[in-house]
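Shape is hard to put into words, and the shape of a protein is harder than most. The fold becomes a row of whole numbers, each drawn from a learned catalogue of backbone shapes. The outcome of that step, for a single protein, is printed below.
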Amino acid sequence: MSSEIVQLLTQLHDKATIVARKAQPFLKASDPDYYRLGFVARHAWHFKREFRNLDTSLSRVISLTRNGNLEFNMQTMDQCISDLIGDQRSGARPCNISENCWKFIRSKNTTGYMTTHQALYFMVGEVKGCVPNITERLFKSHREGDGIIENIFETLCANIYKQVTRNELILHRQRKSRDSEERDLYMEQCYVCGILGYHKFLSPDRLSVILDWQLPPGCYGSNEYLRDEAQEKEDSEEEEDWNYKELIDEGLRLKDLENRRMTHPTNASNLPGGCERHITGVATGLLGVYLKWLLTVPSLESILM
């Protein structure tokens, strides 16, 4: 690795650390319950897999819909993940897996956000040291090939890959681009399976598309905001001053955020500049996966520069 790349990585790390620290109070105030669930936002995400091939023949998806699985319920998923994490304040121990949650998590033939969150559930379980509890449940379920978490990861990502490539083909044929919600799901799918090590979700062309979705402030969100801004502020060349005062002026006062709740991944609060909370977080994670991938493929290292 060249000294230039080492310097670039150091700068990115330092900047990301500062941004994450500044974002903490706003996340905590806007959604205390979600913040408690998001323990990974306050600690390093120690979930590592080497890049590997994906057996796409494992896909078991029967039907694919544009908006994903209609049975996905964010509140149920949050509760199931909360049971895994535990709560020191209430004395709830981690690694609790209720029968209802297990049935929900092990639903078959899922699509969209439901599939990605099934994978995230097992990822969180691994990070929290719940593998023995999960493995015991898997063996009791008597499903062929499901006794190992890695088998579940590969099957889920095979399903997700089928969805990703199918949607890419449809959009290409129709010569359409994704809307904000579709981009959010697409990047979440690529992030989840990318961090699991399945490099089929990663490519220079896909990276180029993802970078093109970035808004001027550096975040991700809706292009509709930019069009509205252009109409309201013609010829205005004022750059946004990303500081604490502007966030307050934009209505993000901590006391005004206390009662907001996120019931669906893409319903995240909007921020200045057209930025949206959830899609920006997902994109940041995915770009981190791409960074690791580019560093492990010598022929692609030049893209970083």
Notes: Residues 66-70, 233-263 have pLDDT under 50 and may be disordered. Residues 27 and 118 are 24 Å apart (CA to CA). The radius of gyration is 20 Å.
